[in-house]
Amino acid sequence: MLHPAQCAACGGVVGSERVDVQYQTDLPWVRPHVTAFHVHVGRCRHCGRRVQGRDARQTSTAIGAAASQVGPRALAWAAWLHTGLGVPFAKVATILRTGFGLAITPGGLVQALHRVAARSAPTYRALVQAVRHSSVVAPDETGWKVGGRLWWLWVFVTPEVTIYAIQPGRGYPQAAAILGARYAGVLVRDGWAPYRKLPHATHQTCLAHLLRRTHHLLETAQRGAARFPHAVRRLLLRALALRDRRAGGELGGHGLRVALGRLEARTPILCSPAA
Q: Domain range for residue 168?
């Protein structure tokens, strides 16, 4: 872009000095891409059952009046907008129509995502089994609205996988529905009571929760009563520092076992009434 030949302020001649570069990022103009699948339909000459072909790219086998379907990329966007960002189906349909030129009704989106959920069910069940067989699981739950009513979004995190479950309650049945009643690994959890009903698990209270509790106690403790939360906080921080040294390769073998032994020996002393 050439600069003006004359100065807009005084009318003087403008002399060139240099050429600078400006960058502007924008979205491309998006229009739907329509693919026509020519589906061959036949009939079994033995049992009379109708049989039709299917391409791997098809999201539905419907033909006839329901032959117009939404493709996998559009469904992925719709699923992310609705379940990931919490956008209502009516607004998802508006976004797809105004932003991408794709016309679909909210009801059509609901039906399409139900099909996505059905096809994803075997994978989800396999992930649940992976959680049940994991040596360590960290569960948690938070409020979630379903139809304007309070439900709960559960999350179960392992070193390999993370799964979510939206359930109507926040109790033991919901936790056991994912973990199983006989989960026997390490359960890293907060103080929520229903987790204690898993008797086969090794229970590890979340250190972040414990540190927050010691901080709260130190803020509210009367003079002379801060000794215990101070000691607990020091013990937890020593444990975390030991973990970091092990992870960084600074400590291992005999040295690690000695350090762990000192921590373990300190714990019952700290929790005794005379401590």
A: 135-205
